[in-house]
Specification:
This protein is 35% helix and 31% strand. By secondary structure, it is α+β, with helices and mostly antiparallel strands. It folds into 2 domains: 32 residues; 105 residues, no CATH class. 14% of the residues are buried.
Length: 138
């Protein structure tokens, strides 16, 4: 009976420890904390050189991915085409990014990261009203 209780206890406690450990070491909390989201945007700006969001930007989202050795931020927002064009003009060396057109008509730009970031990828929808920005630090 003691053996059964020990095995059952371990069977309950071990998964609980793994779940709690995952929640505290993953990006679970960062992606829900407004203060961390503001910090993630500042880090994204530092790693890519992008200016702050246009004043008329809407639907801003940001989340983090990665693990102990990597950090990756994915952000998105929408704005009128003219605001996005002005915003793109504020990105240093944007004209030197590798540009490719995707099958859906979107345009993707891949540029060199800053401050240790490996690269960034900026995707514009065909109407140039939505921006998806991804940056990776390894």
């Amino acid at each position: 009976m003691k053996k059964f209780l020990l095995i059952t206890g371990i069977g309950i406690v071990l998964p609980a420890i793994l779940i709690v450990g995952y929640l505290f070491t993953s990006n679970f909390w960062d992606n829900r904390n407004p203060l961390m989201k503001a910090h993630m945007w500042e880090v994204t700006r530092a790693w890519t050189g992008v200016p702050d969001l246009p004043e008329d930007a809407t639907d801003f989202r940001i989340k983090t991915n990665g693990d102990f050795l990597t950090r990756k931020f994915e952000s998105a927002f929408a704005a009128p085409t003219s605001s996005i064009e002005t915003w793109l003009g504020g990105i240093p060396d944007f004209d030197k990014t590798e540009q490719s057109e995707l099958p859906d008509g979107s345009v993707e730009h891949v540029g060199s990261g800053r401050e240790g970031a490996t690269y960034y990828r900026l995707k514009l929808n065909p109407e140039r009203t939505k921006v998806l920005l991804f940056v990776s630090w390894n």
